[in-house]
């Protein structure tokens, strides 16, 4: 398959690419580098990316920016960034990319466990994740020539270690990548795939 991987330079993105590239053609898309550059916060940038890349069998997004901060510390910019990038950026991959997906292909987006298991500091991220999961469930009812799903990772061990957190409750990036592999190669449609379920 020809697969466009948005956010390939991130911790999860790198693991997904490593798992895919042995058997598939992977086109990496990132904000600052990769085979093609894309700014998820810009619909025009997303349009340009698809024009450059052309038709693909699958799109995977492991990208999306949202702030982690206490409720009283969140600013207007924090909310707008999460809405424009993490949420609408990924929604626009479907809206603007749907005509570039080959028949029977798929689009896989990324939410996160904080949609259903929020914690202190996660208000903006939980908002974007929950909205994205609901969007995928609804959009799938009207998309019938390819599949659309969303993967919900838990905290990634590598990121937790970098932040000085206890990594026991986390999942490695490589194990997280298994949910994305299942989304691309499976038959599910309109589903939220919880990463721990695919170990």
UniProtKB/TrEMBL annotation:
InterPro entries: NAD(P)-bd_dom_sf (IPR036291), SDR_DHRS6-like (IPR051122), SDR_fam (IPR002347). It comes from the Bacteria. GO terms for molecular function: oxidoreductase activity. Keywords: Oxidoreductase. Belongs to the short-chain dehydrogenases/reductases (SDR) family. This is Short chain dehydrogenase. It comes from Colwellia psychrerythraea (strain 34H / ATCC BAA-681).
């Amino acid at each position: 398959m020809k697969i466009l991987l948005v956010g390939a330079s991130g911790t999860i993105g790198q693991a997904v690419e490593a798992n895919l590239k042995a058997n598939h053609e992977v086109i990496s898309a990132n904000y600052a580098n990769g085979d093609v550059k894309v700014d998820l916060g810009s619909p025009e940038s997303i349009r340009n990316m698809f024009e450059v890349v052309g038709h693909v069998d699958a799109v995977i997004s492991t990208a999306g920016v949202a702030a982690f901060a206490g409720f009283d510390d969140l600013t207007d910019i924090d909310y707008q960034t999460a809405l424009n990038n993490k949420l609408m950026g990924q929604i626009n991959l479907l809206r603007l990319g749907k005509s570039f997906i080959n028949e029977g292909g798929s689009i896989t987006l990324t939410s996160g466990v904080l949609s259903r298991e929020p914690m202190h500091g996660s208000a903006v991220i939980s908002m974007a994740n929950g909205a994205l999961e609901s969007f995928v469930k609804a959009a799938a009812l009207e998309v019938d020539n390819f599949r659309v799903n969303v993967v919900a990772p838990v905290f990634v061990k590598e990121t937790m270690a970098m932040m000085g957190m206890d990594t026991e409750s986390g999942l490695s990036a490589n194990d997280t990548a298994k949910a994305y592999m299942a989304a691309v190669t499976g038959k599910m449609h309109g589903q939220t795939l919880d990463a721990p379920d695919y170990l």
